[in-house]
Design brief:
By secondary structure, the chain is an alpha/beta fold. Helix content is 41%, strand content 21%. It has one domain (3-144, 208-277): 3-Layer(aba) Sandwich (Rossmann fold), CATH 3.40.50.1820. Residues 40-264 form the AB hydrolase-1 domain.
Length: 280
Protein backbone atom coordinates (compact mmCIF):
# COMPACT_ATOMS: atom_id res chain seq x y z
CA UNK A 1 0.00 0.00 0.00
CA UNK A 2 1.37 3.38 -0.98
CA UNK A 3 1.76 5.76 1.97
CA UNK A 4 2.46 9.49 1.69
CA UNK A 5 2.41 12.27 4.28
CA UNK A 6 2.28 16.03 3.97
CA UNK A 7 2.71 18.64 6.72
CA UNK A 8 1.42 22.19 6.53
CA UNK A 9 2.64 24.81 8.98
CA UNK A 10 -0.03 26.09 11.36
CA UNK A 11 1.64 28.98 13.19
CA UNK A 12 -1.49 29.93 15.13
CA UNK A 13 -1.50 26.46 16.67
CA UNK A 14 2.24 26.41 17.33
CA UNK A 15 2.63 23.27 15.26
CA UNK A 16 1.85 21.58 11.98
CA UNK A 17 -1.25 19.89 10.61
CA UNK A 18 -0.64 16.91 8.38
CA UNK A 19 -2.44 14.42 6.18
CA UNK A 20 -1.26 10.84 5.89
CA UNK A 21 -2.53 9.10 2.77
CA UNK A 22 -2.70 5.30 2.98
CA UNK A 23 -4.00 3.87 -0.26
CA UNK A 24 -7.45 5.34 -0.87
CA UNK A 25 -7.92 6.84 2.57
CA UNK A 26 -6.47 9.66 4.64
CA UNK A 27 -5.56 10.19 8.29
CA UNK A 28 -5.45 13.69 9.75
CA UNK A 29 -2.79 14.43 12.35
CA UNK A 30 -1.10 17.31 14.14
CA UNK A 31 2.50 17.62 15.27
CA UNK A 32 3.42 20.17 17.96
CA UNK A 33 7.16 20.15 18.71
CA UNK A 34 8.51 20.79 22.21
CA UNK A 35 10.47 23.85 23.23
CA UNK A 36 13.38 21.62 24.21
CA UNK A 37 14.63 19.24 21.54
CA UNK A 38 15.38 16.56 24.14
CA UNK A 39 11.86 16.59 25.63
CA UNK A 40 9.75 13.43 25.26
CA UNK A 41 6.83 13.07 22.87
CA UNK A 42 3.27 12.03 23.63
CA UNK A 43 0.89 10.57 21.06
CA UNK A 44 -2.85 10.78 21.77
CA UNK A 45 -5.38 8.27 20.40
CA UNK A 46 -9.06 9.24 20.69
CA UNK A 47 -12.15 7.25 21.64
CA UNK A 48 -15.08 6.15 19.55
CA UNK A 49 -17.22 9.16 18.55
CA UNK A 50 -14.63 11.78 19.54
CA UNK A 51 -11.78 13.36 17.61
CA UNK A 52 -8.35 14.70 18.48
CA UNK A 53 -10.20 17.77 19.81
CA UNK A 54 -11.05 15.76 22.94
CA UNK A 55 -7.45 16.39 24.07
CA UNK A 56 -7.63 20.21 23.84
CA UNK A 57 -7.09 20.75 27.57
CA UNK A 58 -4.06 18.46 27.57
CA UNK A 59 -2.58 20.28 24.57
CA UNK A 60 -3.03 23.63 26.30
CA UNK A 61 -1.33 22.36 29.45
CA UNK A 62 1.53 20.38 27.90
CA UNK A 63 2.39 22.54 24.87
CA UNK A 64 6.09 23.32 24.91
CA UNK A 65 6.94 20.97 27.78
CA UNK A 66 6.62 17.90 25.57
CA UNK A 67 6.23 17.12 21.91
CA UNK A 68 2.62 16.31 21.03
CA UNK A 69 1.19 14.19 18.22
CA UNK A 70 -2.58 14.09 17.83
CA UNK A 71 -4.58 12.32 15.16
CA UNK A 72 -8.13 11.34 14.33
CA UNK A 73 -8.75 7.60 14.37
CA UNK A 74 -10.24 6.12 11.18
CA UNK A 75 -13.70 7.45 10.35
CA UNK A 76 -13.48 10.19 12.99
CA UNK A 77 -12.69 13.90 12.83
CA UNK A 78 -10.97 14.69 9.54
CA UNK A 79 -9.85 11.09 8.86
CA UNK A 80 -11.70 9.13 6.22
CA UNK A 81 -13.48 5.83 6.81
CA UNK A 82 -11.80 2.72 5.39
CA UNK A 83 -13.71 0.45 3.05
CA UNK A 84 -14.12 -3.12 4.21
CA UNK A 85 -13.58 -4.52 7.68
CA UNK A 86 -12.03 -2.32 10.36
CA UNK A 87 -10.20 -3.98 13.23
CA UNK A 88 -7.47 -3.13 15.69
CA UNK A 89 -4.79 -4.52 13.39
CA UNK A 90 -5.61 -1.68 11.00
CA UNK A 91 -6.10 0.91 13.76
CA UNK A 92 -2.79 0.07 15.44
CA UNK A 93 -1.02 0.19 12.08
CA UNK A 94 -2.50 3.67 11.61
CA UNK A 95 -1.01 4.80 14.93
CA UNK A 96 2.47 3.61 13.96
CA UNK A 97 2.13 5.21 10.53
CA UNK A 98 1.25 8.52 12.18
CA UNK A 99 4.37 8.29 14.34
CA UNK A 100 6.41 7.72 11.18
CA UNK A 101 4.74 10.62 9.38
CA UNK A 102 5.37 12.92 12.35
CA UNK A 103 9.02 11.90 12.48
CA UNK A 104 8.76 10.64 16.06
CA UNK A 105 10.73 7.53 16.93
CA UNK A 106 9.70 7.05 20.57
CA UNK A 107 6.69 8.35 22.48
CA UNK A 108 4.41 7.94 25.44
CA UNK A 109 1.24 6.47 23.95
CA UNK A 110 -1.97 7.86 25.46
CA UNK A 111 -5.19 6.03 24.59
CA UNK A 112 -8.77 6.83 25.57
CA UNK A 113 -11.42 4.07 25.48
CA UNK A 114 -11.12 2.73 21.90
CA UNK A 115 -7.64 4.26 21.96
CA UNK A 116 -6.60 1.73 24.63
CA UNK A 117 -6.65 -1.37 22.37
CA UNK A 118 -5.25 0.80 19.57
CA UNK A 119 -2.24 1.74 21.69
CA UNK A 120 -1.84 -1.80 23.05
CA UNK A 121 -1.97 -3.22 19.53
CA UNK A 122 0.71 -0.78 18.40
CA UNK A 123 2.88 -1.65 21.41
CA UNK A 124 2.59 -5.35 20.54
CA UNK A 125 3.94 -4.63 17.06
CA UNK A 126 6.65 -2.12 17.98
CA UNK A 127 7.40 -2.06 21.73
CA UNK A 128 10.63 -0.08 21.33
CA UNK A 129 8.64 2.90 20.07
CA UNK A 130 6.98 3.43 23.45
CA UNK A 131 8.70 4.93 26.49
CA UNK A 132 5.48 4.74 28.53
CA UNK A 133 1.75 4.08 28.14
CA UNK A 134 -1.26 5.91 29.57
CA UNK A 135 -4.40 3.79 29.21
CA UNK A 136 -7.63 5.61 30.02
CA UNK A 137 -11.10 4.10 30.50
CA UNK A 138 -10.60 1.14 28.21
CA UNK A 139 -10.15 -2.61 28.07
CA UNK A 140 -7.84 -5.07 26.35
CA UNK A 141 -10.63 -7.22 24.95
CA UNK A 142 -14.35 -7.18 24.31
CA UNK A 143 -16.28 -7.83 27.50
CA UNK A 144 -18.55 -10.86 27.80
CA UNK A 145 -21.75 -10.12 25.92
CA UNK A 146 -20.08 -7.21 24.19
CA UNK A 147 -20.80 -8.34 20.63
CA UNK A 148 -24.55 -8.29 21.21
CA UNK A 149 -24.37 -5.01 23.12
CA UNK A 150 -22.49 -3.33 20.29
CA UNK A 151 -24.96 -4.69 17.74
CA UNK A 152 -27.76 -3.08 19.75
CA UNK A 153 -25.91 0.24 19.92
CA UNK A 154 -25.26 0.26 16.18
CA UNK A 155 -28.91 -0.53 15.46
CA UNK A 156 -30.03 2.22 17.85
CA UNK A 157 -27.77 4.81 16.21
CA UNK A 158 -29.10 3.93 12.77
CA UNK A 159 -32.71 4.00 13.95
CA UNK A 160 -32.48 7.22 15.96
CA UNK A 161 -29.90 9.15 13.95
CA UNK A 162 -26.46 9.88 15.32
CA UNK A 163 -27.22 13.17 17.12
CA UNK A 164 -30.06 11.79 19.30
CA UNK A 165 -27.96 8.70 19.95
CA UNK A 166 -25.01 10.87 21.03
CA UNK A 167 -27.18 13.05 23.24
CA UNK A 168 -28.34 9.96 25.13
CA UNK A 169 -24.82 8.54 25.24
CA UNK A 170 -23.38 11.71 26.78
CA UNK A 171 -25.87 11.25 29.59
CA UNK A 172 -24.23 7.90 30.34
CA UNK A 173 -20.67 9.04 29.73
CA UNK A 174 -20.98 12.12 31.98
CA UNK A 175 -23.75 11.04 34.38
CA UNK A 176 -23.26 13.72 37.04
CA UNK A 177 -21.95 16.61 34.95
CA UNK A 178 -24.00 19.75 35.67
CA UNK A 179 -22.11 21.86 33.11
CA UNK A 180 -24.59 22.10 30.23
CA UNK A 181 -22.09 23.89 27.99
CA UNK A 182 -19.50 21.16 28.49
CA UNK A 183 -22.03 18.46 27.70
CA UNK A 184 -23.14 20.37 24.59
CA UNK A 185 -19.53 20.65 23.38
CA UNK A 186 -19.11 16.90 23.67
CA UNK A 187 -22.38 16.23 21.85
CA UNK A 188 -21.27 18.50 18.98
CA UNK A 189 -17.93 16.71 18.69
CA UNK A 190 -19.56 13.29 18.74
CA UNK A 191 -22.41 14.13 16.36
CA UNK A 192 -19.88 15.38 13.79
CA UNK A 193 -18.67 11.79 13.35
CA UNK A 194 -19.93 10.26 10.10
CA UNK A 195 -22.32 7.37 10.67
CA UNK A 196 -20.10 5.08 8.59
CA UNK A 197 -17.11 5.97 10.79
CA UNK A 198 -19.03 5.13 13.94
CA UNK A 199 -20.30 1.84 12.51
CA UNK A 200 -16.87 0.78 11.24
CA UNK A 201 -15.13 1.31 14.57
CA UNK A 202 -18.06 0.02 16.63
CA UNK A 203 -17.76 -3.19 14.61
CA UNK A 204 -14.09 -3.38 15.61
CA UNK A 205 -15.12 -3.13 19.26
CA UNK A 206 -17.56 -6.04 18.89
CA UNK A 207 -14.83 -8.66 18.87
CA UNK A 208 -11.27 -7.73 19.76
CA UNK A 209 -8.58 -9.12 22.04
CA UNK A 210 -5.14 -7.58 22.47
CA UNK A 211 -4.71 -8.96 26.00
CA UNK A 212 -1.84 -11.28 25.05
CA UNK A 213 0.55 -8.32 25.14
CA UNK A 214 -0.27 -7.23 28.70
CA UNK A 215 2.27 -9.43 30.47
CA UNK A 216 4.98 -8.48 27.97
CA UNK A 217 4.84 -4.72 28.56
CA UNK A 218 8.18 -3.51 29.90
CA UNK A 219 7.66 0.27 29.93
CA UNK A 220 5.90 2.28 32.68
CA UNK A 221 2.09 2.10 32.46
CA UNK A 222 -0.34 4.58 33.99
CA UNK A 223 -3.94 3.37 34.10
CA UNK A 224 -6.68 5.99 34.46
CA UNK A 225 -10.39 5.45 35.09
CA UNK A 226 -13.25 7.84 35.69
CA UNK A 227 -14.86 6.92 39.01
CA UNK A 228 -18.34 7.25 37.48
CA UNK A 229 -17.63 5.14 34.39
CA UNK A 230 -19.82 2.16 35.29
CA UNK A 231 -17.87 -1.08 35.62
CA UNK A 232 -14.70 0.27 33.99
CA UNK A 233 -12.80 1.24 37.18
CA UNK A 234 -13.41 -2.21 38.67
CA UNK A 235 -12.56 -3.96 35.41
CA UNK A 236 -9.29 -2.06 35.03
CA UNK A 237 -8.40 -2.84 38.65
CA UNK A 238 -9.22 -6.55 38.32
CA UNK A 239 -7.88 -7.23 34.83
CA UNK A 240 -5.37 -4.68 33.58
CA UNK A 241 -3.66 -3.69 36.83
CA UNK A 242 -2.49 -7.19 37.86
CA UNK A 243 -1.73 -8.26 34.29
CA UNK A 244 0.67 -5.41 33.43
CA UNK A 245 4.00 -5.52 35.30
CA UNK A 246 4.45 -2.45 37.50
CA UNK A 247 1.26 -0.73 36.32
CA UNK A 248 -0.35 1.99 38.43
CA UNK A 249 -4.07 2.87 38.52
CA UNK A 250 -5.52 6.26 39.41
CA UNK A 251 -9.29 6.76 39.62
CA UNK A 252 -10.53 10.27 38.77
CA UNK A 253 -13.32 11.41 41.07
CA UNK A 254 -16.20 13.24 39.42
CA UNK A 255 -15.39 11.85 35.98
CA UNK A 256 -17.23 9.38 33.79
CA UNK A 257 -16.01 7.85 30.54
CA UNK A 258 -14.05 10.84 29.19
CA UNK A 259 -11.99 12.12 32.14
CA UNK A 260 -9.57 14.09 29.95
CA UNK A 261 -12.55 16.21 28.86
CA UNK A 262 -14.66 16.24 32.04
CA UNK A 263 -11.90 16.54 34.67
CA UNK A 264 -8.91 17.73 32.61
CA UNK A 265 -6.92 19.19 35.50
CA UNK A 266 -6.75 15.83 37.27
CA UNK A 267 -5.66 14.09 34.07
CA UNK A 268 -3.07 16.79 33.38
CA UNK A 269 -1.54 16.17 36.82
CA UNK A 270 -1.15 12.48 36.00
CA UNK A 271 0.39 13.20 32.60
CA UNK A 272 2.81 15.67 34.20
CA UNK A 273 3.83 12.95 36.66
CA UNK A 274 4.46 10.51 33.82
CA UNK A 275 6.61 13.11 32.05
CA UNK A 276 8.53 13.83 35.24
CA UNK A 277 9.26 10.14 35.66
CA UNK A 278 10.51 10.03 32.08
CA UNK A 279 13.05 12.67 33.06
CA UNK A 280 11.56 15.98 31.87
Amino acid sequence: MKTEATLDAAPSQGGEHGTLVKGARSIAFQRIPPTRASAPWLLFSNSLLTSSAVWAAQVADLRGRAGLVLYDQAGHGRSSTPTGTVGFDLLSDDLLSVLDAAGVETCCGVGLSMGVPTVLGAYAKAPKRFAALVLMDGQAKTAAGGAAAWAERMAAAQAQGLRPFCEALVGRWMPHCADAALRARLVEMMAATPMEGFLACASALQDYDVSAVLGEISCPVQLVAGALDGTIPDSMARVLLPAIPGARLDVIEGAGHIPCFEQPEAVNVLLARVLQELGT
